[in-house]
Write a structure and sequence with these properties.
Blueprint lengths: L1 H24 L9 H10 L6 H36 L11 H20 L10 H21 E2 L2 E2 L1 H25 L2 H12 L7 H18 L3 H7 L3 H6 L4 H23 L5 H13 L3 H23 L10 H19 L5
Antiparallel strand pairs: 1-2
Helix pairs in contact: 1-3, 1-13, 3-8, 3-11, 3-12, 3-13, 4-5, 4-6, 4-7, 4-11, 5-6, 5-11, 8-11, 9-13, 12-13, 12-14
Length: 343
Amino acid sequence: MESKKYFFLSAIIMLLVLLTATSLFVGVYEFEMPYSTLLKNTFFHKDRIPETDFYILYELRLPRIIMAILVGSALAVSGTSLQGMFKNPLATPDLIGITSGASLFAAISIVLGAHLKNLLPEVFHFSLISIMAFLGSVITMISVYKIATVKGKTNVVVMLLTGVAITALGFAFTGFMIYLSEDDELRDLTFWNLGSLAAANWTKNGILVCVIAVSYFFILKKGKALNAMMLGENDAAHLGIPVERTKQQIIWFSSLLVGTSVAFCGTIGFIGLIVPYILRQLFKSNYQIILPFSAVTGSVLLLGADTLSRTIAAPSELPIGILTAIMGAPVFIAILIKNKKTL
């Protein structure tokens, strides 16, 4: 197992580096410099890079690549930790309605933001969409958990049906926001619903780094606790695991990761479903391994999907949410077929 673990980690890191380099130099724009010279100057002589090349490289592509790495990692870790907490492979942010709740609150802040800002201190105006998306994800997460859990045991059917209901409700209210919106707001709402990394910049990446650093400080240490909780919450408590505190931290920080990702990139589904599924095929349900590994694997998956989305139909850009849905739907069906007797 140890050799398998290190081999996979080395391979996935090498793949991430290769994808990053490929994504940096692949696109509609043709650089004036040869790639080898441009790459050399990137590290040693930035002042020799032509102005347009420099702008494309450092202000458009590199921030987008970094955002893909960060958001893919955040969505994968949140999905993996929620699956461990609910003890079910279908408990992902998009399937149980968390992404929909975050998107709805983001839509409300887009359309009604001018009115909401009058009620809030000025310090919150810049990050209003992020705050609202976080609130939406937290409220949805707590609602799903309360409705689907009785005496510490989660009813998977109730959980999924609750997610369906919340998603339908979010879709209805988002439709109402679209009805109320003006042209600029309508474009923003379309962006949230389809998902895109086109609005990436260094400021947003800085916020994402801070959010992810704080969240991972708590979540990535929960592998042992999640393994124990797989045996049952009572057994985990007897082993000295602080079950309630662990669940609360997973709820809050998963919601924070999903809410921030939705605020910056819109709805990108199925990352939290695909990544844990792949890792479980390799390492079973050992969350001490698959939880930290999901952070890297999610980055590879979303960066690969984003590179494909902006090159497959160039010069147009295919919304990344469409690609992840195409990849995730077969995995969802495979999980349902494999677990149909236990659901």
